[in-house]
Every structure is written in C-alpha cells, then in structure tokens.
Amino acid sequence: MIPGSLARRYARALLQLADTPIQREIFGRDIASFVRVAAVNELDKPSLLTVLESGAYPVPERRAVLQKVLERMSLDATVSKFLLFVFERGRISGASQIARQYAEMSDALSGRVHAKLTSARPLPTDAVNKIKAALERATGKTILLESAVDPELIGGVVTQVGSVVYDGSLKTQLGNLRTSLRG
C-alpha cells in the first residue's frame, strides 16, 4: 500500500503519457487487467503482488517474473514500462491504488461520473434509464450507474453522484416526519 497522494501522482504520470483519449482508455484497461491478475490468491499461494513486493526473493528474480507476466499479458508497451518503473521504485504494492486513481482521473477527463442508485426493490429497466437520463441532464456528464437493492429503504430511491446524495427514500421521509413531530 502507498499513500493516496503518491498513487495520484503515479496515476497522473501515466495519464500524461496517453496522447489520445483512445490510448487513455487502453492504458486504463491494461493497468486494471494487471491488477486483477496480480491480486489473485489461489489456495494457500501468495498473489503475484505479494511475491513482487516480498523481500524474500532477490530483486532481479522478482523483476524477471514481472517482465514475464507483462509479456504474457500483452499489455501496451507504455503500461508495461510504467509498471516496471513502479516496481523499480518499490511501489508495486500500490498498483491497485494507482489503477483506481487512474480510472477516476480518466473518467473525469472523459466527462464520466460514477453514481449509485439504491432502491427497496429492483427497478424496471426503463425507470433506471429515466433516472440515469435525469442525472446526466443535471450533471452534464455521462453517468456510469451502479444499481443496488436495500429493503430497509421501504420505498423510493437513494442516488449518490460523487459526494452528493439525493435521498428520496420512504425511510428517510418517515424519519424526518418523526423528528418534526417530536420537536
């Protein structure tokens, strides 16, 4: 693990290496793929990230393992060089944080924002699409919507876009009514 500010700096550096929006998407896809592969734990075997950051193995051997994995994954050459650079700096344990920061920065540059829609019951597809369209109009950005179900809401929906929460749940409305009747 590395501090968040350091992960942002590495992510920003990789982002600056992308000359086009398409290349930016390729870099994001490739670094996310590497993290998915490197973080896998199989039946009492350490993950690739654990091996790469372990001092139990000599650096040249760990570097060779990383190079072989990168070759087999056929990642973009820039992403492979970037990951080798991160390894050389002793920061490979932060690859997942760097990938997460990269995705956030890339989304921001592309005008995308993540949102979470929580409802008491699964919503019909057309209702979800209408909510998504309304959020896109309100934010002026493309919404990447994740849906969840929480029966405790009783009814209505709660939507979180970035740090802003729109709470139209029956649970919250009943709580507000209870508070106003007590006061």
Automatic annotation (TrEMBL):
Q: Which InterPro entries match?
A: ATP_synth_OSCP/delta_N_sf (IPR026015), ATPase_OSCP/dsu (IPR000711)
Locations listed in the record: Cell membrane; Membrane
Alphabetized UniProt keyword annotations: ATP synthesis, Cell membrane, CF(1), Hydrogen ion transport, Ion transport, Membrane, Transport
**Any GO MF annotation of the entry:** proton-transporting ATP synthase activity, rotational mechanism
This protein's membrane topology, according to the annotation, is: Peripheral membrane protein
Query: Does the keyword section mention Transport?
Result: yes
Keyword RNA-binding included in the entry's annotation: no
What is a single Pfam family found in this protein's UniProt entry? OSCP
> What is any one of the record's Gene Ontology cellular component terms?
proton-transporting ATP synthase complex
Q: Into which family does the record put it? A: Belongs to the ATPase delta chain family.
Q: Per its database record, what is this protein's job?
A: F(1)F(0) ATP synthase produces ATP from ADP in the presence of a proton or sodium gradient. F-type ATPases consist of two structural domains, F(1) containing the extramembraneous catalytic core and F(0) containing the membrane proton channel, linked together by a central stalk and a peripheral stalk. During catalysis, ATP synthesis in the catalytic domain of F(1) is coupled via a rotary mechanism of the central stalk subunits to proton translocation.
- The protein's name in its UniProt record: ATP synthase subunit delta
The species this protein was found in: Nannocystis pusilla
